[in-house]
Amino acid sequence: MPLLQNFSESLLEAGCDEVGRGCLSGPVVAAAVIVNKNFKQNLVNDSKTLNFKTRQNLDLYIRENAVDFAIAELSPEFIDQHNILNASIHAMHLALDQLKNKPELILVDGNRFHPYNYTPHHCIIKGDSKYLSIAAASIIAKNYRDNLMIKLHDEFPEYGWNTNFGYCTKVHQKALKKFGPTIHHRRSFRLDYDVEIELEIDRI
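Request: output the structure for the sequence above.
Response:
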């Protein structure tokens, strides 16, 4: 089913999404994207449904063809201080702050958001599989974060961040058991799972 181009017929909309909420390490990253009727990339969809190569190609298309876009990240330290929900929402606010075109309506993936600068917003469950701007935001946020975690893997190769991107996998948990947490781990998250249990990656 094709994604919807817009929620309103007349307002300038920004779609927002974040990645990395369920990770044990690394920042939470959010993006805001504004598209218009000329944005015709039919492959754009929820980033979780796309393979790495497709996401990389779409990332370039979005950056070149969106009316506006911005990306923001918040550190594990900020997450530990303010909790992951507040950090995720604040990261979306920071992305919105960077837009040169100020939206008249904000579309948010999920069911929670804090009001932003008196701008109306709509929270949409699974919005990244329904609206083009949210899906585009999910793609560029995920690509940004995945590439960052691949770079951090060079610094801490034991944790497998080049493949698990900070999510809870058996390799990640075994490394935590053996080496302990790094400066990139979220100390407020549970880091002492039983490493014998294979845990499903929760890519929220």
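The longest helix spans residues 132-155.
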